[in-house]
Description:
single chain; Rossmann fold; 2 domains; seven-stranded parallel sheet; six-stranded parallel sheet; 14 helices; 42% helix; 16% strand; globular
Amino acid sequence: MKIALNIEMIGKRGGAEKYAGSLARYLAAAGHEVHVVARQVDPGELPPEVRVHRIRPARVPGLGWLRAYRFAAASERVLRGLQVDCILGFSKAWRQHAYLSVGGPHRAALDHGSQRFRSRWLRAVWRLGKLLSLKQWSFRLIDRKAFHSGRMPHVIAVSRMSAEHFRQYHGVPADRLSVVYNGLDDGNPLDDPAAAREAFRRELGLADDDVAVLFVARNYALKGLAPLLEAFAPVAASQPRAKLVVCGNDRSASYRRHARRLGIEDRVRFLGFLEDVRGCFAGCDLFAFPSFYDPCSLVVLEAMAAGLPVIATRQNGAGELLTEGADGFVLESPWAVEQMTDRIGRLVRDDELRRRMGREAAVHVQAFTLGARMQELLAIVERISSKAPPSRATRSAA
Length: 398
């Protein structure tokens, strides 16, 4: 088949960006003719047989808020000229047969993201700011053209939660909804995990019997670092072995101050952005990820593959993959701080429980390999393509 992928960027940063690169490589290796329409593709991410069509819209002073819309419009012009069997859009696009929803509906992310504020007043102010944002209006316009202009694509969601959100926010019917969970790409394992663990812990000054709780995210606010710090404080007070390791973003000043106010500054290690986090997974003992919104966090699968028990939330579709009490715990919400404190405390105190759950996590995640997920996705793409020949690719709403 001739398949086109439409996404702004392909690279190692971000779940959608990594997923798109993996999908393009998989499809090319399977013998398909793959086209990628993107603004940026990081060097070395795609094999030479993948045909890249770069979108380079000129920068217009004062119109940065229109960047996503201009990319979608430019992509449509390029895609209209490609004779392909199936167009797979990732986000901020409207010319597509299938919408690969790695990030979930934009409105769902806003609604759930506002819950990071405990105060109703702050939530209202934050939502008002989003309502008045020209950039947010451009996102809404893209969604309207994609889902509400007689051009409904087939949505491939990464969790049941995300699929329900597409039904709720965009009225996507059941026969145009599929669920394909994220898959784990373990094509670059550590040569010696034990040595990596020893080196990581030595660098951070962790004792052999210290229990390191890991948190990895780019967006600390959305992924729940604030409630995690509050939940960790009582554990740190009662369990001298407990340490918290935070990485993924260099902007951590406000969270350092929060840790200082909680009296746990000396128990939290802020590592900033790391190009390679495999050493973090090898060197830590459990993974806490109290996200306010995540359709299906890939980092949860990565933690499980490293043999770490996981603490997630019901607002994260990856929680659907956990077996409560066997390989992880699922919190009612990120602000269920007492519940989170209890779960972290149990895993810190009980070495045997933690190790048993970690072993179970490593076994369970083997069912969610990237290859298996790609096979599921390809079967859906083939079914969609048989119903939508190239001449029937979604047309411009103009």
